[in-house]
Amino acid sequence: MGHGEDAVFTLRAAGAALVVDAAGPVPQVLHWGADPGPAAGLRETAAPALLNNSPDEPRRLTVWPVERDGWSGTPAQRGHAAGTATTPRPELVEVQAVPGRSGGGRIALRFADRVSALRGEIVFAMDEFGVLAVDQSVTRDLALAPGAAEPYTLDGLRVLMPVPDRAAELLDFTGKWCRERAPQRGPLRFGTHARRAHRGKPGHDTPFLMALGTDGFGFGHGELWTVHLAWSGESEYLAERLPEGTGLFAAVLGAGELLHPGEVRLADGERYDAPTAVFTWSGSGLDGIADRLHRRLRARASHPAEPRPLVLNTWEAVYFDHDMDRLTGLVARAAKVGVERIVLDDGWFRGRRGDHAGLGDWYVDEGVWPEGLRPLVDLVRGHGMEFGLWFEPEMVNLDSDLARAHPDWVLGPAQGLGPAARRQYVLDLARPEAYAHVRDRISALVGEYGIDYLKWDHNRDLLEAVSRRDGAERSSVRAQTLALYRLLDELRALHPGLEIETCSGGGGRIDLGILDRTDRLWASDCNDPVERAQIERWTRMLVPPELIGSHLGAARSHTTSRTTDLAFRLAASLTAHAGIEMDLQTASDEELERVRAWAGMYRELRLLIHSGRIVNADLADDAVQLTGIVAQDGAHALYTWARTATSPAGQTGRVRLPGLDPAARYRIRVRGDLGDPSRHQGRDPGWIAAAAADWIDLDGGVLAVAGVPLPTLNPQQAMIFELRRLP
Question: Where is the signal peptide (predicted)?
Answer without folding.
Answer: none
